[in-house]
């Protein structure tokens, strides 16, 4: 399901570090070499490279990348080189800051990671920011957004396949009742969405569809200006079919006048080692054009090359 | 700070298992031998004993203890032998069941464990109950209790000493404002109590005292029949001075007509390896009688012996 391509035989971390060091020296930076190495190493390998680099040169690889590269290419390489848990902590922290705030990104991190990966992001958040993720989310949000986002980032959902069908039926009914009354931030509705396992939630939503004739997100269709309702729909999508959520996020990022590089980078970097293959299939199906062609049409240079490498085209 | 006494030289897990096996066989059970072994092994050692026992005899030590022992003694030995994370999961699960429900125990587990120990309890909860702790707490509580307990059990508080004094001052003001209005389940008040690190919360409560002339729990003094308010006060106590909270819990358990063995067992078993020394000091100071004497006065037989061993008197 991942699109990351790691060569069958990989250079040692020491060799990779030496090559990267070479890429930084002399006239100009050798971006192609940086892509050739970093875009073809998995998270564990990148971690070793960072550790080896620090031990060998006494410097932080991320800092050197930061000073050698620029603009969107810099951004994608830095995000990619970070450990996934640190990256999630970073993304979530940026999303709680005033100038870069995004309820959307907070929700995405909370809902599309495995329970343990979300926990590792919370640990990385402690280490880096000397605060807890939920503390910042709670402090920087208000009203309905807080009611939804704080339990989402604090959840440690059960991940087994077991489903209680009686419960699914009764909770489908609760969801329908609340939605009929437009009580979108009702505490029972939020309880169900934020605490149930994804399997259990899925069963409840199937029951919803069976009993009431509509998919829940159809009943939640609403004014795109209602920001909370839009987030609520995206939450359900993330929890039940993340590849569709990411397809749409990529579509909007690519089709946007001027391209939303932030979103494009985020999705590619966070999903390349997870489910980018499925996302690509969804993208092609929905847009009648392969993702790599869409990305190539909207980006250029090393940024384009890095993105294409991460989605498996290099 | 622990009261558990482990001998300088401990028998091997295999030897311990052999002795325990002997204690179970023949006419009657050798309770003294069980106490001699289990009440003097730390959590890691008890875990090894359970594993060795299962590997050697193909049986679960807990099941054998369960069938050999009875009544309060059985209960304290079983609780003690469990791994702390499993024990917390068990205590919390019992506390969400209709017949044994206790908002008090849920709060105690959530507020007096370290952040990582609470997380380990949540993991143990998944493994044992195929559900998440927060899921059950949210499902089995309502209203103000749910608003407080769900974020408490979901928290992963930062544990560093860093304190933001500006924030402490502003949040002291928020707390005072809400309490003056008797808005005890206000979402800002709950946010502060459930997300801030214990150090940060303590700073805010010191500021509260400085700025408004009263300790917060004095301002929360109220009708003991108001169950939510009583729980809120206990929450603050657990977060800021757990030894006082546990002293009081022991005092009430011991002084109760008929003794509350459940609470007595729970506090002794969960704190013997943590801070029972401090709790004993608090108890002696507050009741003018040493805890061991108070326990000896209210309990008998093997149950008494086991409790006394765990609090360091054997």
UniProtKB/TrEMBL annotation, chains A, B:
Q: Which InterPro entries match?
A: Annexin, Annexin_repeat, Annexin_repeat_CS, Annexin_sf, AnnexinD_plant
Tell me a GO biological process for this protein: response to stress
Molecular function as annotated in GO: calcium-dependent phospholipid binding; metal ion binding
Sites binding Ca(2+) 1 sit at 24, 26, 28, 68, 254, 256, 258, 296, 299, 304
UniProt binding sites for Ca(2+) 3: 298
Keywords of this protein's UniProt record, alphabetized? Annexin, Calcium, Calcium/phospholipid-binding, Metal-binding, Repeat
Gene3D superfamilies per the record? Annexin (1.10.220.10)
Q: Show the Pfam families listed in the entry.
A: Annexin
Q: Which domain of life is it from?
A: Eukaryota
Instruction: Enumerate the PANTHER family for this protein.
Output: ANNEXIN, ANNEXIN D2
Domains as described in the record: A pair of annexin repeats may form one binding site for calcium and phospholipid.
Q: Which family does it belong to?
A: Belongs to the annexin family.
Q: What's the name of the protein? A: Annexin
């Amino acid at each position: 399901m991942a699109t990351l391509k790691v060569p069958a035989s990989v250079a040692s971390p020491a060799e990779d570090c030496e090559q990267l060091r070479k890429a930084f020296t002399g006239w100009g930076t050798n971006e192609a070499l940086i892509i050739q190495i970093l875009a073809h190493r998995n998270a564990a390998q990148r971690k070793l490279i960072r550790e080896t680099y620090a031990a060998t040169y006494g410097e932080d690889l991320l800092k050197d990348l930061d000073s050698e590269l620029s603009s969107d290419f810099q951004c994608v390489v830095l995000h990619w080189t970070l450990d996934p848990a640190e990256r999630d902590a970073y993304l979530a922290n940026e999303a709680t800051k005033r100038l870069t705030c995004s309820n959307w990104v907070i929700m995405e991190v909370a809902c599309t990671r495995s329970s343990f990966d979300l926990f590792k992001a919370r640990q990385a958040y402690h280490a880096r920011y000397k605060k807890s993720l939920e503390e910042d989310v709670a402090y920087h949000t208000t009203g309905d957004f807080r009611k939804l986002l704080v339990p989402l980032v604090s959840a440690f959902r059960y991940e087994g396949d077991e489903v209680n069908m009686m419960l699914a039926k009764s909770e489908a009914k609760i969801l329908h009742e609340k939605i009929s009354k437009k009580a979108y931030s009702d505490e029972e509705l939020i309880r169900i969405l934020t605490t149930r396992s994804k399997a259990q939630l899925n069963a409840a939503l199937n029951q919803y569809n069976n009993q009431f004739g509509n998919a829940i997100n159809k009943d939640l269709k609403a004014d795109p200006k209602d920001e909370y309702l839009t987030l609520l729909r995206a939450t359900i999508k993330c929890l039940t079919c993340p590849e569709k959520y990411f397809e749409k996020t990529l579509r909007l990022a690519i089709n946007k006048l001027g391209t939303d590089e932030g979103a494009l980078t985020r999705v590619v970097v966070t999903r390349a080692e997870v489910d980018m293959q499925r996302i690509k299939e969804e993208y092609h199906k929905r847009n009648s054009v392969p993702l790599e062609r869409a990305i190539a049409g909207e980006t250029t240079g090393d940024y384009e090359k890095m993105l294409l490498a991460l989605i498996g085209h290099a």
